[in-house]
Amino acid sequence: MxxxxxxxxxxxxxxxxxxxxxxLWLLLWKPWRKFFNAVxxxxxxxxxxxxxxxxxxxxxxxxxxxxxxxxxxxxxxxSKTIIEDDVQxxxxxxxxxxxxxxxxxxxxxxxxxxxxxRAMVISGKNGIVIGRNCTVSAGALVHQSIPDGATAAAVPxxxxxxxPKAPP
Length: 168
Description:
23% of the residues lie in helices and 24% in strands. It is an alpha/beta fold.
């Protein structure tokens, strides 16, 4: 398949796209994965089934996680989205692990974090970490890491409640 695709592009005088080296099964699987991830899974009313299907696609999701309906987890590279145990992600959140001139970077949501409704998390060039027991308010746009125990809000998100200080 890749030889045929590369030959067609060569005849047109253009460089072959990055996916010309993909095996045929991957070229066929990716549109189906996109369909299930963007259309089917977010519409399922049962959290446990949504989690199982997200894991089957390749997302790394811990135990006792809640992901609300109508969330979009970027499926360009599912292994780059890591959600640890006891995380709650509210309704309609968006997660992006890729973008223009940044490659595929990780989004890590640490244990006990809460992401409010319609929040957007964009990994950027270096990836981001939403810290342990962190709160991201509804509608926030997270584009940089948030420390453990902090509360972040606004567009773009900034820490509005600092994490508690460790005793001396």
